[in-house]
Amino acid sequence: MPVDQALSQLLSSARSHAAQPVDDLPLEQALGHVLAAPVIAAHDVPPWDNSAMDGYALNSSDAEQARRQGLQVSQRITAGMAPTPLQPGTCARIFTGAPLPAGADCVEMQENIELTDNGLARLIQAVQPGQNVRPQGQDVRSGSTLLPAGLRLRPQDLGVIASVGLARVAVRRPLRVAVVSTGDELVEPGAALLPGQIYNSNRFTLIGALQRLGQQIIDGGILPDDKAQTSARLRALAEQADLIISSGGVSVGEADCLGQVLREQGEVALWKLAIKPGKPFTLGRFADTPLLGLPGNPAATLVTFLLLVRPYLLTRLGCNQVDAVSYQLPAEFDWPRSGSRDEYLRAGLRDGRVVLSGNQSSGVLSSASQGSGLVLITAGSTVAAGESVPFLPFSGLLD
Ligand SMILES: Nc1nc2c(c(=O)[nH]1)N[C@H]1C(S)=C(S)[C@@H](COP(=O)(O)OP(=O)(O)OC[C@H]3O[C@@H](n4cnc5c(N)ncnc54)[C@H](O)[C@@H]3O)O[C@H]1N2
Ligand code: MOO
Q: What range(s) does the MoaB/Mog domain occupy (predicted)?
C-alpha cells in the first residue's frame, strides 16, 4: 500500500477515537501539550498606550514651542506608575513601557532632546503624532482568538497566554503508551551478551521519541518469541494503555509471533506498506486497544515512528498540524536505482546540500545518529547530484 494511502487510513483510525479528556494545567506544565479549546483574550495587550523609548512625552501640537524654547517637564513616569493627565504646554519625562499620560500623543527619545539651563526640554527635530507610542491593543485585542484549539504549545505560545493574564490552560491529556520490544535475541544494555544475543536498542529510540512528544509511557519490557506469553502480556498492557507500540515480530518469519497473535486473536487493519525501511509496519488492535507494530530493524523502527506513529499520536490528541516539515534542497549524491517503495535515507546537510550519512541498511542505526534528518526518494524515481530532494530534519520530526 502506498504510504499516503496508509497514512490517511492511519489518521482516520486515530480520529475515530473519542477525544482525550481535558486537563486544566498551570502554564508552567503546559509546554508541548495540545490546546483543547481556543484561547480568547480577555484583555488588550498592551492594556494602555505606552512609551517605546526612554525620553519625553508631549502633545505634537506643542512641538513648535518645544523646538523654539523647550517645554517644562511637569511629571516623571516610570514603568509601573499611573500617570496624571499632561498639563497643556508641558512634557513628561517618560521611560520605556511607562503609560503615556492623557493629553500626550508622542514620545521623543532622550538622545534627541536638549535640556536647557533652566530645565526645559527642547526638541532637536520634528516629531509626528504617534511617534514612539505603542498603542493599546497593538499586540492583542480583547475578545480576539489568540490561539486555536489543536495547537501544540511552544514557549512563545505560553508567553502569549500569560500576556493576557491566564494562569491555566485547557489541554488534551497525553496518551498512555505501552512500549514493547519483541525477540528472544534481545537483552537490555548493562547485561553481558551471550552467543546469539543483541542489545535492545529500539526500546530507547521509542521511549525517547515518546518523551519528546510528552506522552505517558508504560514500559512493557521485552516479549519472548512465544505466542502464549505474547498474548498474555499484550492483554495486560491493553488494559492500562491507550495505545501499544511494539517493535519487531511483524514480518513473515515463523518466530514473528506478534503479527501472528494479532491476526489470530486481535485484528490487523493495515500491513505491508511501500516504505523503506519499514515495510511490515502494522496497524492492529488487541483486546480493544490499538497497536502500532513497528518493524524490528532499528532504522525501520525509527523511520516508521517518525513518519507514521508521530502523526497518528498527534491526531489522537486533536493536534491541527501533524505533517512532517520538509525542505526542497539540492542533493549532493546520486541515487541511480529506483525502487518500488518510498525510501527514506538517513542524511545530513553540508553547505546547504543534502549528503547521505552512511550505511543505509535498515539494520544500521548509527547513520541516523550521524545525520540530521531524512531524505525522501519517491518510489519509481532516481536522483542525480544537483537535483532538489525533500529533506526532513529530525528537529521537525522529533518535536
Ligand atoms: N522473507 C522475508 N523476510 C523479511 C521480510 C520480508 O518481506 N520477507 N521483510 C524484511 C523487512 S523489510 C524487515 S523491516 C524485517 C522486519 O521484521 P520484524 O518486524 O519481524 O522484526 P524482527 O524479525 O523481529 O527483527 C528484525 C531485525 O531487527 C532486530 N531487532 C528487533 N528488535 C530489536 C530491538 N528492540 N533492538 C535492536 N534490534 C532489534 C532483530 O534482531 C532483527 O535483526 O523483516 C525482514 N525480513
Ligand atoms: O522495511 Mo525493512 O526495514 O526494508 O528492512
A: 178-315
For residue 399, the model assigns a pLDDT of: 86
Residue nearest to ligand 2 atom 3, measured at CA = 277
Q: Domain 327-397 belongs to what architecture? A: Beta Barrel (2.40)
Give the residue whose CA is nearest to atom 4 of ligand 2. Answer: 277
Cell numbers for 139, please give them: 499586540
Return the CATH number of the domain spanning residue range 22-44+145-172: 3.90.105.10
- Torsion angle, CA of 28/155/303/333, rounded to 10 degrees? -160
Q: Which ligand is closest to the CA of 273, given by its number?
A: 2
CB 122 within 8 A of CB 70: yes
From 165, 159, 123, select the one nearest 142 (Cα to Cα).
Answer: 165
Q: Which pLDDT score is estimated for 255?
A: 85
Q: Are 298 and 363 in contact (CB under 8 A)?
A: yes
ipTM of this complex: 0.98
What's the gap in Å between 321 CA and the centre of ligand 1?
31
Please compute Rg for the chain using Cα positions: 30
